[in-house]
Amino acid sequence: MSLNNTPSSERIHIGFFGRRNAGKSSIVNAVTNQQMSVVSDIRGTTTDPVTKAMELLPLGPVLIIDTPGFDDNSELGQQRVERTKEILRRTDIAVLVVDSTIGKQDTDYELINIFKERNVPYIIAYNKSDLSGEQLYSDGIAVSARKMTNIYKLKEVISKLVKTDTPSTICGDLINKGDLAVLVIPIDSSAPKGRIILPQQLVLRDILDNGATAICVRDTELESTLGKLSQAPVLVITDSQVFESVSKIVPDDVLLTSFSILMARYKGFLKTAVKGAKTLDELKDGDKILIAEGCTHHRQCEDIGTVKLPKWINKHTGKELVFETSSGNSFPQDITPYSLIIHCGGCMLNERELQSRRELAENAGIPFTNYGTAIAYMNGILKRSLAVLPDYQKFVR
After folding, report:
1. In terms of residue numbers, what domain contains 209?
2. Which ranges of 23-126 would DSSP assign to H, the alpha helix?
3. Shared domain check, 354 and 313
4. Mean pLDDT throughout 296-321?
5. 342 in a domain, yes or no?
6. Pairing of strands 140-142, 122-127
7. Exposed site from 170, 249, 322, 394, fewest CB < 10 Å?
8. How far apart are CA 184 and CA 163, in angstroms?
9. Are residues 259 and 121 in the same domain?
10. Residue 137 pairs with which residues in a beta bridge?
């Protein structure tokens, strides 16, 4: 996958924050070396977040986010501030731009507190050092967007703030060079025309990158395809929607899992998802379930989030439940009405956004799982589905 084609969910999200007229947009333009944002002496020129996917050395593929001024107290400004807080949920690295001619103000300290509360690594860029005189700061760097002073140094510091505890591969550590893996990809009315969805693309590329062989097949041809193979695959990875039928076809001595389960591990919330799936057996009549998707798409008649999952859950629990949905970045901040949250694999969201959602649920004491884990649990095959990831099997009841 080329850097230019890297999906935004796989990019490091770098957000630029600060007061109006601190020079955020000027710093963004200097860091990206292009006119990404409009620059003006008029306060509040940036009215909505501006994003740009690009390659930023030495980091590689990143998503740059220029945010509106955080000190806008007007009615419309408050909406912009809320949008800025929303951006923070998916920010991997924050750059606080401070006007060095006046120093940090209350708004800047408020942002710093938010960074700390949300455990977002940050650096302070004291802009306009050409006017205030280049000084040494214990908590940041003196820069000048106009003179390009210390811009490269700022980029170097940003690159050192990148940290992650999640695997750098989706399934590459589960296979060896020369292994054979089978990917089960249903093609039905809900499948995007002319392409396969992102988790399938990522898994396929990961297998190829590790020198293994991948066979892609529809669920309707899986049984005949396995019968034609001279050797059994080391791993079968299936779309969660056909988990039940695929588990009956794949021999018990062949490892089986789903794209959704692998994505949950890749995004860092599989343990939470496994524990949360067990809550399906504890639901009561009238309980509300939030089904959340990270992408926005046209709903089909057999849509998994709004049609299939509710049907399967009703059948499994035998309860009268209430289902609500969210998509894209519209994840509700008040989740207290829900007894369970079932999330998609999160391929369109970066790790930080998914972790923010997981932490929100955890802090509210609400179980959190995902599509593939819940479907495997309802079909009684979750333990089998985690055999390829034995460290997670112990969380299955």
Report:
1. 172-263
2. 24-32, 75-88, 106-117
3. yes
4. 82
5. yes
6. parallel
7. 394
8. 33
9. no
10. 140
